[in-house]
Design goal:
This protein is of the alpha+beta class and 94 residues long. Helix content is 32%, strand content 38%. The chain has one domain: Roll (Nuclear Transport Factor 2, Chain: A). The chain has two helices and five strands, in the order αβββββα. It starts with a helix and ends with a helix.
């Protein structure tokens, strides 16, 4: 499990260079959807000061790229976590 988190962080770092998202700068967790697809859940203040939760998905295939179709924003940690669970089911990775 730790290896998955470490690999996920490496994929995310390759895409973003360790720079936090300006809207959701606090990383809450990372993981893998598959051997080459990493996710990150993070939080921050939205435009109106309310806490928001972002799910960022990055694919690695020779080089990294953010998957804008799979990435999304939520108003609760629970909703973001459920979304990641759904992505895992969609990709079928443990």
């Amino acid at each position: 499990m730790r290896e998955n988190a470490s690999r996920a962080r490496r994929i995310l770092h390759a895409e973003f260079g360790g720079e936090p998202n300006f809207m959701t700068p606090t990383t809450l967790g990372t993981g893998l959807l598959s051997d080459n697809i990493a996710w990150e859940i993070s939080s921050g203040s939205g435009v109106f000061g309310k806490t928001i939760y972002g799910v960022t998905v990055v694919t690695e295939g020779g080089r990294t790229s953010r998957d804008f179709k799979m990435s999304d924003c939520f108003d609760s940690h629970k909703a973001a976590s459920q979304y990641i669970k759904g992505l895992r089911e969609e990709v079928k990775y443990d």
